[in-house]
Amino acid sequence: MSHPTDESCIFCKIVAGQLPCFKLLEDETTIAFMDINPVNPGHALAVAKGHWPTVDVIPPDVLADVARTAQRVAKAAIATLKPTGVNLLQANGAGAGQSVPHLHVHILPRRPDDGATLNWTYRPGDRAEIEEISRRLKAALE
Ligand code: AMP
Ligand code: ZN
């Protein structure tokens, strides 16, 4: 199946076999491989084969395929590495910490005190503000 590519993109090069990776699985629309700068042991990525940078531009069926691949990898990590938990994480835009503009989901098997800094503590929000933002979002839903 044909998909958009970007010749300067590192993940497009991995998809095309022009750069090496520790591949876990591949299907028609997705690929999963180990992250080369792991936050912790077992850190892997589920990646769309096509070059769509972010969640707002990827076709929904491909996003669903990426989610299915992330689930397969997470199940393998749970069964094999027996982590205390698993985070699935997907960043969109530099402000969210995205460094590779080609859509991917991180699979992060967690360990106590593993130093991954993506969790936060609860702090009750302002209900009026929550409601006002929810109204704006509802009006923009497609
Ligand atoms: P993000 O910051 O969410 O865009 O995540 C990009 C991830 O891709 C980072 O965790 C990098 O360590 C990882 N990464 C970058 N280049 C490679 C590569 N050649 N092979 C595997 N993972 C990579
Ligand atoms: Zn790409």
Task: From the structure above, extract its key features.
142 residues, alpha+beta, HIT family, subunit A, 5-stranded antiparallel sheet, 3 helices, 5 strands, 18% strand, globular, binds adenosine monophosphate, binds zinc ion
Quick synopsis:
The chain is α+β, with helices and mostly antiparallel strands. The protein is built from 3 helices and 5 strands, in the order αβββαββα.
Structural notes for this entry:
With 142 residues, this protein is α+β, with helices and mostly antiparallel strands. The chain has a single domain (10-116), classed as 2-Layer Sandwich (HIT family, subunit A), CATH 3.30.428. Helices cover 30% and strands 18% of the residues. The model has no long low-confidence stretch (mean pLDDT 96). The structure holds adenosine monophosphate (AMP) and zinc ion (ZN). The site of zinc ion has 6 residues, from helix 1.
> By CATH's scheme, which homologous superfamily applies?
HIT-like
CATH architecture: 2-Layer Sandwich
Number of helices: 3
**Which fold name fills CATH's third level, the topology?**
HIT family, subunit A
How many structural units, i.e. domains?
1
- Sheet with the most strands, sense and barrel status: 5 strands, antiparallel
Q: How much helix, percentage-wise, in residues?
A: 25-40%
Widest beta sheet: strand line-up: 1-2-3-5-4
User: What class would the helix/strand composition place it in?
Assistant: alpha+beta
Report the mean per-residue pLDDT as an integer: 96
End-to-end separation: 27 Å
As a percent range, the share of strand residues is: 15-25%
* Morphology: globular
SSE pattern: HEEEHEEH
At the first level of CATH, the class is Alpha Beta
Spans of at least 5 consecutive residues whose pLDDT stays below 50 are none
Bound molecules: adenosine monophosphate, zinc ion
Annotation, overall tally of beta strands: 5
State Rg: 17 Å
